[in-house]
Specification:
With 252 residues, the chain is of the alpha/beta class. The chain has helices at residues 9-18, 25-34, 53-62, 75-84, 107-123, 136-144, 155-158, 163-182, 198-202, 214-223, 225-245, and strands at 3-7, 39-43, 66-71, 88-91, 127-132, 149-153, 186-190, 209-212.
Amino acid sequence: MAGLGVNIDHIATIRQARLTDEPDPVWAAVEAELGGADCITFHLREDRRHINDRDATLLRQTVATKLNMEMAIAPGIVRIALNLKPDQATLVPEKREELTTEGGLNVVKLRRRIAPVVKKLRAAGIETSAFIEPEPDQIAASAECGFDAIELWTAGYCDAKTTKAQILALEKLDRGVELGLEHELIVHGGHGLTYRNVQPVAEIVGFSEFNIGHSIVARAAFVGMRAAVREMKRLLEMAENRLMLGIGTATE
């Protein structure tokens, strides 16, 4: 079964709404792990709009599963990552005006800036991943830059308004996973996934991990973080069982 990475950024967003000390994203990470999370993901943005340096330091000290740091290629953030040494660093695009990450990193356009960052991170023993759209040229460029993994942007499917558009987006993700594996990359997925839409994506063979944040945090507001994580894990398990039974795949 594909692992579940829980993004705890939005716990920090709630805290920052009042500029107080609760809810604590570090404690949320503990609760997520107790609920079965295989990975804890956080995004240390340049503007520190949610997760801050204190959070990042304590997460490194306390997370018992894999710690995945989403980050821009800005020199200051790279220096923090090299010092913090998360288990994985996922390079993402970042714009100050966006509400959340919009689209994937343009590795094709930025490869001359990205490749040296990947080299530094890997030399420090940090696994590297590129958050990209499921485009063949972006996947190939990620492999050429030396990434260990890619995280395919799933919002094209999540935001699709018609059944036909959803099917086309799922087929694109399916091809992206296949191409990523051909390039000997580990393939993750994420962005926009919810309890209502995750199963068709989870039925695509080849994904090793899904990173989900907002939907789990929203559900946790009603049932608690542990239960919310368990519910999402159960959906991933159901998708895995369907594949094992040969009931069908998302693109059929």
